[in-house]
Amino acid sequence: MLIEKKSPDLWLFIVIILLMAVGLCMVFSSSYIMAYKWYGDSYYFLKRQLIYSMIALIAFFFAIYTDYHYYKKFTLPILILSIALLSMVYIPSIGRAAGGASRWIKIGFFSFQPSEIAKFALILYMAESLTRKQVKDIKTFIRGVLPTLIIMLVMFLLILYEPDFSTSLIILGISFIMLFIGGTRVIQLYALIVAAIPLGILILSREEYRRVRLLSFLDPWKDPLDSGFHIIQSLLALGSGGIFGIGLAESKQKYFYLPDQHTDFIFSIIGEELGFIGTVVIIILFTILLWRGFRIALDTSDQFGTLLAAGITSMIVFQSIINIGVVTKMIPTTGITLPFISYGGSSLIVNMFCAGILLNISRYKAIE
Amino acid sequence: MLSKEKKERIIFLLIIFIILYFSLIYRLYNIQVIQTNKFKEIAQQEHLTSFSIEGERGNIYDRNYKKLAVNINDKSLFAIPPKVENPQETARKISSILNLKTKDVLEKLNQKKSFVWIKRKLKETEVAEIIKLNLEGLDFLDENKRYYPKNYLASNLMGFVGIDNQGLEGLESFFDKELKGLPGLSILERDAIGGKVPLSIKEPNAHKDGHSIVLTIDEVIQYITEEALDKAFQEYKAKAGIAIVVEPKTGEILAMAVKPSYDPNYFNEYPRDLWRNRAVTDAYEPGSTFKVITIATALEERVVKLDDQFYCKGWTNYNGHIFHDIYQHGSQNLTDIVKNSCNIGVIQTGTRLDEKVFEKSIRRFGFGTLTEISLPGEINGLVRSTKDWSKISLASLSIGQEISVTPLQLIMAISAIANRGTLMKPMVVKEIIDSAQNKIKIFKPKPVRQVVSVDTALTMTKILEQVVNDGTGTRAKLVGYQAAGKTGTSQKFDFSTGKYSEDKYSSWFVGYVPTDNPKISILVLLDEPKGSYYGGTVATPVFQEIASKVLPYLSVPTN
Asked: How many angstroms away from the CA of A306 is the closest CA of chain B?
């Protein structure tokens, strides 16, 4: 078996750059009215997103040209660091609260969401640990699943109590997918799902707003001005876009009808301005990303690369499905960003870094 | 090397993800293609606030196109209740500025509506204070407010409009349909927090401005009339005062003054009973002024001749009822009995008439029926038919009792004498013009009927000249103009006692000038004057003052 070094996957590269470019456009288009209203500067969010994009591109290219095997050595430090950062959110002097939740930590001028790093740390850890273990270990619960389960649970709870229900859900999903690809027995995975059900009920019932959200998902028109507001406005935005959309920057829903129009609900604005064609193009881009990402996972020469590639791809894809599922009212409202497109530095930088790793993995191909 | 199991699981996952993506696309197809119209409609309803833009109300002009009623822009305060951050606080603050009850304001702010008026048409100071507060969820909308630049002038005639610019009284009410603009549906695109999005205002259904009306009223004559009337009204502390100036040939009302009056800009601050136009809404016993009708009818029916002699001993017995006079006028001819306003002589003349003939003549002069002037609230007055008359009714009617007339009816009847016996329909509006100043409608003078012959009318004028020259109405005498007229002092009928009141009178003067070619006829009525009450003392000088100013104004040549 030889390992050949070649240039990174072009399809994937183009898709990532396109997604980021669309993101920049749509962040500006969706935010300029609001930015002007609240900050007196239409370019407020665009300027920041441009800076984030620059940093993200640096991380992107850094990852493309850094042999992904190096990360193996840093698995544990990164894991410990990410858990430490997650805990720091709860330290009042560092943690920065926004919108009733402390999901941020602020170091100097820079504030970021440690949960974004945690997602990557978890994938890296699982890829590494599942590779390290023997096949028979993976198939046992104690040695194969439990360690992962504990790490996952720690992260899950830390993020859940920020509170950031959505990201903690992503953590769960990633772990599950990683276990699945890693070779965990299907019966154990079933058991995990069954075990998760009472946990889920507990979580939902403890917080009134989650229950309300779930109920409003079932019938948003019952309370259109309050709990159903987000989802109705989102559907109105998408629906009024029609096939061709009402034109870039022409959105009416962004005039404060649709909250979080530049973050969690940016896809609705895309749907309104660029229509069904626009939304399908975005989904096709993500589908190409999915296809190329899994292709890379299948083509790569080693287990670690496969798991890392599949994990990263799944994370991005899973998050995009959740996000679009929310805005189209296929699943209950939960705040999650659309990878590469939504406004936000932490997620863009981490996602671009991960995409870079993916492209780096694509440079190594097993030759029989 | 990758195990077969891992490969399968990755492919399985890939398929799951692809299925999920396709279901998202299907879902989007459903929302964006199949249901797009439904969502578009809902979104549009939400974005677009449709409101009707009132067409601007037409102006009211006097006959020389002087503005009597116009529109000015006013600001009205509304709230977007969901955007009001602290309703309690907001209600407290704005209610004190706007003089409203905090409770009421709070109730409005707590309504589950996206739009609610707080107060319409604010004063400038109120607007400034509200702006200073800089409260969330409150905003202003420009609205037209009716403005009467001349304030009191002709207010009882003009009337006023309500908060929605709907005509409520007077001409504003009668011509509401013409004056009122047609509302246009206007659509304002707005954002969810109610700010006006700098997009577009569409008006798919254009509004139309209302027509303006041009009155027969002459602002200057109206002013002269009101000033003269008010002087007497104040001097004699009368209950009410009415003065009407008519052009006899056309029936055009040149002035119609009512006291007490009100400022239509603030009509709410005046008691309701000051709003009406007493010249048409109230009826009075015409008293001696009605003797003109009696004598004219008698002349027309040839039951009397100018040189017929009458003897007044101070009282007369008619069908068992004693009618009194204040003087013993002694021997008089027909002119004398009118000149002296001799009850006895007039009763002697009037009772020569057939009851039916007299009633018919009274009605032909326009009493008992509406003049159909374009004013709201006009009443018929009371003219009973002969079958309801008592034995003495004929005599009573001869001297203007047992009948009630509106001041307008009376001056139109007098004007008929001035107009060689032709009764004209009173006109108060000359033209209706649209917003582009095109004349939509021109009202032409309309003769109602020939009430008496030209001869009778001219003879009557000769008699009435003597009233002014040498009779009860000498205070109506004018320098350079020959006037004709008749005074009247009627005791008011007290409905609580069923008798004529001892101390409540109406003082009248009706007349016209110049007699050779009458340009104006004038009615003056002072209701319940205090102190003096004779028509010749109280009302007649008002006629004189009005005529002496109006005639030169109209450039009527002196003789």
From this structure: 8
